[in-house]
Amino acid sequence: MPVDEKTHVYSVTGLTRDIRFILEDKFPEVWVEGEVSNFRSPSSGHVYFSLKDESSMLKCVMFRSANSRRKFEIEDGMHVLCFGRIGVYDKQGQYQLYAEIIEPQGKGALFVAFEQLKKKLQKEGLFEEERKRATPFLPMRVGVVTSATGAAIRDVLKVARRRFSNMEITICPVKVQGDEARDEIAQAIRDLNEYNRYLIDAGLKENPVDVIIIGRGGGSLEDLWAFNEEAVARAIFASEIPVISAVGHEIDYTISDFVADRRAATPSAAAELVIPEKDELTGRVRAFSDRSETAMKSRLDMAGAKLRSLKESYVLREPVNVVLQLGQQVDDLGRRARIKMAHYVELGESAFAALSGKLEALSPLSVLNRGYSITFRGGRVVKNIKGVKAGDRLLTRLSNGEVSSRVEGTGNGSAEPEE
Amino acid sequence: MGGVNMKEISFEKAMEKLEKIVDELEAGDIPLDASLKKYEEGIKLARMCQEKLEKARQKIEVLTKGKDGKFTKKDFEKI
Asked: Which of A56, A83, B7, B42 meets the CB 3.0–4.6 Å disulfide criterion with B21?
């Protein structure tokens, strides 16, 4: 078609502007679903991406203000639902969706955010079991980060009063839902840590907090959301004081639950976990005291009995007893011996006399006194006439001397000696 | 292991030591004077544990941090 004076010829700007008016008029508010691609997140805080389906693509932009409300990260491949307006960027001749709201399709934004943060922090090692600290067996002071007005604090105090009436408690009141909750909770955890350091530096006699309970009563995912925030997770991880997370949610866990040193289903359950029963502990101490006293007494008794039995035992008895017995035997023997000896002596004396009488009688000397003599011939005793000849010289011993003589003859007792 | 440093030891550690002493005394096979020493140590530990239980003076306080960064504490009043 040839151009003439009647044809309206647009400028580029003019045409673009008209296109913009038409599009913006027609599409002031649209919901559109599609798959994310070409996602970019420059430092400006605005994000750029495309939504596509099988055959078409739509360029999108989400400005910083809308982004600050976004809870989850946009990733390529995600299926999302976007709300916004169609606009035209004149300079590039580009129509695009200015997105106000973006939602993951199928799952809630919060759920996706939860999954993403969980994955990220797990990768960084914030959930590692090894780094989790044990909560103290007997806390000196319990810190509680929760709402000052909710049921949670009432329940914790009730449990504390029941189990350990003189337990010291320090409360940091915070919002537990809404936009400010996240920062207040994180700050409260930091404050308790800071206060402890201040107590130590200032050398104050106050007990430092040695365990922190953070939590709240039950609620929806939105209500509990502060406890799924990264800022809270990082404050828990950085806390030198062990933290027990008690977000009133029986079944599901929050990010705080994963990072904390311990987890309880509710704040009162947390109080039951960290606060021991004073009566039970007092009882145990007393039981130990009683047992050691009993054991010591019986040990002493045992030692005493052993000592006595040692005294009475054969081993100890022996030397003394033997000595006594022997002594007694000796006495006995001595007595008997003395009797016997005396007896023998008696016997001896009379026997002696008798013997000596006998002896005397038998003594050659006394025989000689009676007239008997001993005759020697050649130095030998003559007992009979055999071998004796006339003329032999004989020596005869008598009681008072000797007679020498010559044999005149021998016979056998018939001849009478001459005078 | 030497004597007990009363200040440093935690309640839990003290209870553990005390239990060990009681077990040893009950087993009865340590010499008499060692038993007496352990008994004494046990008494000290038991007293210390009891002190730690009584030490806390029921205090329920609220900690707040002012804009100047200073901490204040006040008693918790139930609302």
From this structure: B42
Query: Is A162 among the domain residues?
Result: yes
Cross-chain residue pair B53–A285, CB shorter than 8 Å:
yes
Q: How many domains does chain B fold into?
A: 1
- Give the separation between CA B34 and CA B27, rounded to whole angstroms: 13
Q: What is the pTM of this model?
A: 0.66
Q: A231 with A134, same domain?
A: yes
Whether B79 and chain A come into contact, CB under 8 Å, resolves to yes
Which run of H or E residues covers position A381?
strand A380-381
Question: Among B41, B47, B58, B67, which would you mutate to test the A interface (most chain A Cβ atoms within 10 Å of its Cβ)?
Answer: B58
DSSP letter string over B38-69? HHHHHHHHHHHHHHHHHH----EEEEEE-TTS
- What 3-state DSSP class applies to A108? coil
Question: A338 lies in a domain?
Answer: no
Range with lowest mean pLDDT among A57-71, A114-128, A339-353, A360-374:
A339-353
ipTM here:
0.85
Alpha-carbon gap, residue A240 to A196, rounded angstroms: 10
Residue A324 maps to a domain = no
Is the residue at B65 inside a domain?
yes
Vertex A174, ends A171 and A177: CA angle to 5°?
140
Q: Do B62 and A172 touch (CB under 8 A)?
A: yes
Q: Are residues A84 and A99 in the same domain?
A: yes
CB contact under 8 A, A138 and B11: yes
Say whether both A127 and A80 belong to one domain: no
Residue B73 in contact with partner chain A when CB distance is under 8 A: yes
Of A106, A136, A171, the residue at which a domain comes to its end is A106
pLDDT confidence of residue A99: 96
Residues 6+ apart with CB under 8 A from A153: A144, A146, A147, A171, A267
Query: Are A172 and A268 part of one and the same domain?
Result: yes
Does residue B39 fall inside a structural domain?
A: yes
Q: Which residues of B touch A298 (CB under 8 A)?
A: 28
**Domain range for B37:** 11-75
Task: Give the closest-approach CA distance of B41 to chain A in angstroms.
Answer: 11
Q: What is the pLDDT of residues A352-372, one digit of tens each?
A: 555 555 555 555 565 677 787
CB contact under 8 A, A299 and B78: no
- Domain presence at residue B1: no
CA distance A64 to A98: 11
Instruction: Give the mutation candidate from A145, A165, A187, A285 for the B interface (greatest B CB count, under 10 A).
Output: A285
* Predicted pLDDT of residue A345: 58
Q: Is B26 on the interface with A (CB under 8 A)?
A: yes
- List CB contacts (< 8 A) between B20 and chain A: none
**A74 and A159 share one domain:** no
Domain hosting A294: range is 280-310
* Structural domains in chain A (count): 4
Would you say residue A419 lies in a domain? no
